[in-house]
């Protein structure tokens, strides 16, 4: 809910043109020049030039859906004014699943993380003296110290134990390590000294900044370990580096941090085997509230549909999605036709609900301001579709 408040506060910074809802069929121009905030595009190569040289307000979000002509798609960030809290996320989409969410960062090619700590409050216990560690009352520390990538098979340990007794607060300011489900690959862990032992109080990975930890016992330990695989294979790319993704449909989401930032250019080109046009319906719903029906004309939907509707109001807010009508082929586990909702949460699309038949699903609030409704139909029955509103 915090982020919602921030978004509303930062509203005044710049006005943004709403994304057009267009299917571009023009394959003649070799490089499509995309300058809008979001939209659906079919292209074999394109450059998203978004506010290049200009500024982007805080908490801005845009979603581009690219139907590439071929299976291999190379992405290159060719210019960037983005900061460390901004991100361009590239995901693939296949039959109702959004997978391989990957972040392209725009800032300098430093990898790793940085943390700062400062002390205040009651005096605590002085422990772990004699170890090499962070013993000043406050300070900043970055790992790796040389600003380069960390290595594989790392197992690093950072002790925070101010020699002046204090209760330091540990705050991570930057985290950029390989993300894995359950942080099984690379991970950072924080242990606080409490009751004469180190207790694990946090374990994390990816680029999520964890909440601050106060080391009430006066000392703490940060451990970092990486697995034997290249920490960044396919996950990070900076200006000028190439990144290849193979998919029938690519979703690019830009999400600005809580402060204004500068624009960027992202190019892509397709090669390899041709792919078939995947989406049968698309809408970019960027008004503050509204109604949407699918099929739009009120007939029944067709067999073998794959449709996608983004709800991402251009005016920052937390829209609630409410279905008012559902008539989709019923099945005990929605194995044929289904509507699926994803919410944008923690820089990923998370599946929030799947339904079919005529049951109205619960309301869903997109607390980070955006979400996705997708629809799939099989080659069996067809029904009259669904209606929803967002407010
Ligand atoms: C793309 O379009 C924008 C706006 O029309 C224009 O300023 C820019 O020069 C174009 N870029 C290229 C590479 O054509
Ligand atoms: C989608 O993902 C689910 C779970 O992650 C998996 O079980 C299912 O097979 C996937 N479907 C397709 C068509 O890939
Ligand atoms: C950490 O570095 C930042 C930027 O250089 C500085 O503003 C901040 O005061 C430092 N924090 C501590 C605890 O020294
Ligand atoms: C990216 O690919 C282009 C051609 O597709 C090549 O010219 C360029 O050197 C590549 N960049 C890197 C960093 O590999
Ligand atoms: C959706 O349509 C219904 C009926 O026309 C109307 O009452 C409702 O206010 C609309 N909702 C929004 C968010 O526009
Ligand atoms: C869903 O939201 C609407 C208003 O937008 C409200 O009238 C309705 O009671 C809500 N439904 C549920 C199940 O919470």
From TrEMBL:
<keyword id="KW-0732">Signal</keyword>
<feature type="signal peptide">
    <location>
        <begin position="1"/>
        <end position="18"/>
    </location>
</feature>
<dbReference type="Pfam" id="PF00431">
    <property type="entry name" value="CUB"/>
</dbReference>
<keyword id="KW-0677">Repeat</keyword>
<feature type="domain" description="CUB">
    <location>
        <begin position="280"/>
        <end position="391"/>
    </location>
</feature>
<dbReference type="InterPro" id="IPR035914">
    <property type="entry name" value="Sperma_CUB_dom_sf"/>
</dbReference>
<protein>
    <submittedName>
        <fullName>Bone morphogenetic protein 1</fullName>
    </submittedName>
</protein>
<keyword id="KW-1015">Disulfide bond</keyword>
<feature type="domain" description="CUB">
    <location>
        <begin position="123"/>
        <end position="242"/>
    </location>
</feature>
<dbReference type="InterPro" id="IPR000859">
    <property type="entry name" value="CUB_dom"/>
</dbReference>
């Amino acid at each position: 809910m915090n982020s919602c408040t921030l978004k509303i506060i930062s509203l005044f910074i710049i006005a943004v043109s709403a994304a057009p809802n267009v299917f571009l069929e023009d394959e003649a121009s070799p490089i499509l020049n995309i300058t809008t905030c979001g939209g659906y595009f079919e292209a074999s190569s394109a450059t998203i030039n978004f506010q290049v040289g200009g500024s982007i307000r805080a908490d801005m979000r845009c979603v581009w859906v690219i139907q590439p002509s071929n299976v291999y798609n190379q992405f290159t960030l060719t210019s960037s004014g983005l900061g460390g809290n901004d991100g361009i996320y590239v995901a693939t989409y296949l039959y109702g699943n959004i997978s391989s969410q990957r972040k392209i960062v725009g800032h300098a090619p430093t990898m790793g993380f940085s943390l700062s700590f400062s002390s205040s409050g009651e005096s605590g216990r002085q422990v772990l003296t004699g170890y090499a560690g962070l013993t000043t009352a406050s300070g900043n520390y970055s790992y790796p110290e040389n600003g380069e990538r960390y290595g594989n098979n790392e197992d690093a340990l950072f002790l925070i134990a101010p020699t002046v007794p204090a209760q330091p607060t540990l705050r991570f300011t930057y985290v950029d390590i390989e993300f894995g489900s359950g942080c099984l690959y690379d991970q950072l862990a924080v242990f606080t000294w409490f009751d004469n032992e180190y207790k694990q109080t946090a374990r994390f990975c990816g680029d999520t900044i964890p909440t601050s930890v106060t080391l009430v016992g006066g000392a703490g330990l940060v451990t970092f370990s990486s697995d034997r695989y290249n920490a960044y294979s396919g996950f990070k790319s900076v200006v000028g580096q190439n990144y290849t993704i193979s998919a029938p449909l690519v979703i690019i989401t830009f999400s600005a941090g809580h402060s204004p930032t500068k624009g960027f250019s992202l190019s892509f080109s397709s090669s390899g085997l041709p792919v078939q046009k995947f989406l049968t319906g698309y809408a970019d719903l960027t008004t503050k509230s509204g109604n949407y029906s699918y099929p739009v004309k009120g007939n029944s939907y067709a067999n073998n549909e794959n449709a996608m509707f983004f709800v991402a109001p251009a005016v920052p807010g937390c829209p609630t999605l409410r279905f008012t009508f559902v008539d989709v082929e019923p099945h005990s586990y929605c194995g044929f036709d289904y509507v699926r909702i994803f919410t944008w949460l923690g820089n990923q699309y998370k599946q929030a609900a799947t339904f079919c038949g005529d049951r109205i699903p619960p309301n869903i609030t997109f607390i980070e301001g955006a979400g996705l409704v997708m629809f799939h139909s099989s080659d069996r029955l067809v029904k009259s579709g669904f209606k929803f509103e967002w407010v």
